[in-house]
Write a sequence for this structure.
């Protein structure tokens, strides 16, 4: 159970959080796809990340007929759960009203997958979030593994996700961020099930 202060809370129907690391040095890396999608979604709604609160940069406004807050935590990735918990408290929302978007090395580059709930997988940021608030929130997973499934991730996994996309990957990465932002907008407007049906592909697991 979450406990809130008596002060009037800022208004939002849904919270979208893109996971990433703050700082220019991380901006174009695979691990910051969540930030990139959040920025794309805010741009679609003509919103700016002008607010600093709850250890995050936040864009507030309306999207898909709902009041939304789009946040990029300014904690580092491994401590994302602290910011997400503070954001939920700020807006007096439950985890069921949260959407998290992040990079996933278990999916090939360009693939977008939506899940209504579940565990964190191998993602340290998601491990932090799940440890703080549990598993009952929707998420949009964006693939950053090599597009060819026959190609193994080169070298150390931590180093791989902290590298920028290669030149021949950038077009696919850009298309993926657009698709993920579209999926989030559908989820906000029509619900997570509708987004799963539209973006996960018929007959494929969520």
């Amino acid at each position: 159970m979450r406990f809130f202060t008596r002060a009037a809370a800022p208004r939002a129907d849904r919270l979208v959080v893109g996971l990433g690391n703050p700082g220019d040095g991380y901006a174009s890396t695979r691990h910051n796809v969540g930030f990139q999608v959040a920025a794309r979604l805010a741009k679609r709604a003509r919103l700016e990340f002008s607010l600093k609160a709850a250890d995050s940069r936040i864009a507030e406004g309306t999207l898909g007929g709902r009041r939304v807050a789009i946040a990029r935590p300014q904690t580092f990735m491994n401590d994302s759960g602290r910011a997400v918990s503070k954001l939920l408290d700020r807006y007096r929302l439950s985890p069921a009203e949260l959407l998290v978007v992040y990079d996933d090395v278990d999916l090939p580059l360009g693939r977008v997958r939506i899940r209504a709930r579940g565990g964190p997988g191998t993602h340290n940021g998601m491990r932090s979030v799940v440890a703080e608030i549990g598993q009952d929130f929707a998420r949009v997973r964006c693939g950053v593994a090599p597009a060819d499934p026959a190609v193994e991730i080169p070298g150390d996994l931590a180093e791989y996700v902290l590298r920028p996309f290669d030149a021949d990957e950038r077009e696919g990465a850009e298309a993926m961020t657009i698709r993920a932002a579209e999926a989030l907008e559908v989820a906000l407007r029509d619900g997570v099930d509708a987004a799963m049906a539209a973006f996960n592909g018929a007959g494929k697991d969520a």
Summary: The chain has six helices and seven strands.
